[in-house]
Amino acid sequence: MQKERERELSSPLNDSILFRPTLPEPAIGDYCETTHRIVIISPFPYSLHELVRELTIKCYDVLVFRYWDEEALAVLPIDLMIVDLSKETKHGASAAPQLMRSHGVPTLRLVNKENLSSDEADKSSYSEAVMSWESSTIEQVLERVHSMLAQGNRQPGQRSDQAQVKDLTVDYKRVAVYVGSERIDVTKTEFDLLKALLEAGGSVLSRQELMDRVWGEQYFGGSNTVDVHVKSLRQKLKDDPKTPKYIATIRGVGYRISD
């Protein structure tokens, strides 16, 4: 019986048993109104059980992986990734950030004291941070997690390969545009135009800037080309230029994403 129990706990399908926090019984109607999804990647997940427990108590949705699973991670909406490199050598730890940055998710690396340089600690931002796991308290890690999520200003569950404005969703990976749940049929040029406006973060882009970003600097067509495509895009999105919901015209300058 004991051996069967040991096999059950060591099975990959039952890893979640190790991370089921002992929480106080919630009051009736008590729940988390919003949450952020945090993925933890650690070859030794049990060493982070206290962190997992505290994150869960604070209403974060926590998933734990023992290794980097690109296929699984690519389809998950992730707000923050915590990568445990505390047992890695300096060579192994230095190779990891490039792989993480390519995934486009804010990442907190937990390293051992020897692998934490002062330069890395000073460069910490909402998109990438490094902490020494052995010399940091759980409270300090939680504070850094909260800070990264707050600075990133990302909506809970919003994917890094998607952008959303009101009920308009642009999926960069699938090259798809949705209004609510309805998929809008746009051309590649219209998609690139919308993407350029979204990446500007609300700043105004002149017609020339849009031409350079969408058609390339070698394109010598007239600026009315931009107007034609914006008009077509607005029609498909049912966006009235007089009271724009998605794309606003700034007279004499260009276009921007509407407030």
From TrEMBL:
Transcription regulation among keywords: yes
Q: What is the lineage of its organism?
A: Bacteria, Bacillati, Bacillota, Bacilli, Bacillales
Pfam families assigned to the protein according to its UniProt record, in alphabetical order: Trans_reg_C
Residue ranges of the annotated DNA-binding region, renumbered to this chain: 160-259
For the keyword Secreted, the answer is no
InterPro entries of this UniProt entry?
OmpR/PhoB-type_DNA-bd, Sig_transdc_resp-reg_C-effctor, WalR-like, WH-like_DNA-bd_sf
The name this protein carries in UniProt is Winged-helix domain-containing protein
Gene3D superfamilies named in the record: Winged helix-like DNA-binding domain superfamily/Winged helix DNA-binding domain
The superkingdom of the source organism is Bacteria
Q: Where is the OmpR/PhoB-type domain?
A: 160-259
Identify the keywords attached in UniProt to this record, alphabetized: DNA-binding, Phosphoprotein, Transcription, Transcription regulation, Two-component regulatory system
Please give the organism. Answer: Paenibacillus radicis
